[in-house]
Write a structure and sequence with these properties.
This protein is α/β, with parallel strands linked by helices. It has a four-stranded parallel beta sheet, covered by helices on one side. The chain starts with a helix and ends in a 5-residue tail after the last helix. The relative contact order is 0.14.
Amino acid sequence: QSLGSMLLGWEALCQFQPDVYVDSMGYAFTYPIFALMGGCRVGCYVHYPTISTDMLDQVRSRDVSVCNDAAIARSWCLSRAKLAYYRAFAGLYGFVGRFAEVVFVNSSWTHGHITSLWRVPKRTTTVFPPCDTEALAELSLE
């Protein structure tokens, strides 16, 4: 998926070279392409990180979860291999994420993971999405 986004990003850059590139779809692996090859300023709004420190922790502790199948969790060897892959991917994700000059995230949870992985806390700001809670306030709690 990340490789595909890079190809898509390159194709888009060949069609049009913007001054500013803003990603809101989670295509962090396109940032270096636009920054280095396109000379663009890069910004992003991250809804959910591609990989999170929670995912690394689940594999490390061999917990069965959405991101860690029971067959892998039961196997020491498969868990070690998956953890090595996740660590490498998280490292690459952090590297490409640092190409963003401005980083907006949609929650404190996302903020924690992005600042941990991308290590750009001074460039990272939480912008909560607008939500109309009027109808929710009228719902019964019982």
